[in-house]
Write a structure and sequence with these properties.
This protein is an alpha+beta fold. It has 6 helices and 17 strands. The strands form 3 sheets. Strands 1, 2, 3, 12, 13, 14 and 17 form a 7-stranded antiparallel beta sheet that branches. Helix 3 packs antiparallel against helix 4.
């Protein structure tokens, strides 16, 4: 009889224990409604087990941006102009030295001729040589000016100064690979604000991976396809090499917008809609959709949908969405 009681006791334990364990391990969560909006309720223990992390948002400002396109351009023709110019300067120096010597010679021949020491023919020969050297000086001056004009027409004043000056430090940054020259062409209806010296560029069009590019000057020529204003920029991004096309993000001329910046991990997608989860109390979370946002290097700028001081979920938003969707599935007991 005793043996039978013990067997019954173990059988009851085997029957009830899994159910009790399942109830203990089941996350303490539920879905509620507030004005038709689902609210996920998750107790503190469940939040910890789920790895949910949050962040209280601070005020931030951001310039609205527009997109432009450009290319990393080859400076070989600019270097060729520099070499031609340096050669012209060398020829000019040589011509001027010969001309100066010819001036001294003609002065001496004139003095000798006045004193009857030298013939008129010798004086005339010296004068002809003087004129030839003067013509060489004038030709080298003209050649140098023609090279400058060509550089100005093709590259603009700033790059011309960089290339044709005796100090080529700035141009040397392109030669060493520390910098890459970009030509960015704006849309036809856009202008580069006077205050903008820095833009962001990237080869794949991913704003979050963009690098800085610094303004050099307005370009002397524009892209015939875009028909907009064109500018030269330089970038130290080592991933951009000559010939690559780039996307550029350029700040608008209007005032900065106020809003908040959220981390990249906070934003998730559901049915082609960007959304985040906000913590509205110790145990409740509410989904909020984002209609307007700007991509930044470290996250997203939100101008209106979220206010400073609100607490956003930075880790675990996808889990909260899954809980919300699971809570909307009718249970078998509802049938």
């Amino acid at each position: 009889m005793k043996t039978l009681l013990i067997a019954c006791f173990f059988a009851l334990n085997l029957f009830w224990t899994p159910s009790a364990i399942a109830d203990d391990e089941k996350p303490s969560s539920e879905i509620q409604k507030d004005a038709g909006q689902p609210i996920v309720r998750l107790d503190t223990k469940a939040q910890k087990l789920s790895g949910i992390e949050t962040l209280i948002l601070k005020p931030a400002s951001h310039h609205a941006e527009f997109t432009a396109y450009g290319k990393a351009i080859n400076i070989q023709s600019l270097l060729a102009l520099r070499n031609r110019y340096l050669l012209a300067l060398t020829e000019r120096s040589s011509a001027k030295a010969k001309f100066k010597q010819a001036e001294q010679n003609i002065d001496r021949q004139q003095d000798l001729y006045r004193h009857g020491v030298s013939s008129k023919r010798n004086l005339q020969e010296q004068q002809a040589q003087w004129q030839a050297y003067k013509a060489q000086v004038d030709a080298t001056d003209f050649q140098g000016k023609a090279i400058i004009d060509e550089a100005l027409l093709n590259w603009g004043k700033e790059l011309t100064d960089w290339a044709l000056s005796s100090n080529s430090t700035r141009l040397g940054a392109f030669l060493s690979g520390r910098q890459t020259l970009l030509q960015i062409t704006l849309p036809a209806n856009k202008h580069l604000p006077d205050s903008i010296q820095t833009i962001y560029i990237e080869v794949s069009g991913n704003r979050s991976k963009a690098h800085k590019a610094e303004l050099i000057s307005i370009a002397a020529q524009t892209d015939t396809a875009a028909q907009g204003e064109s500018y030269y920029f330089q970038t130290g991004d080592k991933n951009i090499i000559t010939g690559m096309n780039v996307t550029a993000w350029i700040p608008e001329a209007n005032e900065q917008m106020a809003g908040v910046i959220i981390p990249k991990s906070a934003l998730i997608w559901y049915m082609d809609q960007a959304l985040v989860y906000l913590k509205t109390s110790e145990e409740t979370f509410r989904r909020r959709t984002l209609d307007h946002y700007s991509v930044l290097a470290g996250g997203y700028f939100i101008p209106d949908a979220i206010k400073p001081g609100e607490q956003i979920v930075t880790k675990g938003a996808q889990m909260l969405l899954s809980e919300e969707m699971r809570g909307q599935i009718p249970s078998e007991d509802d049938d």
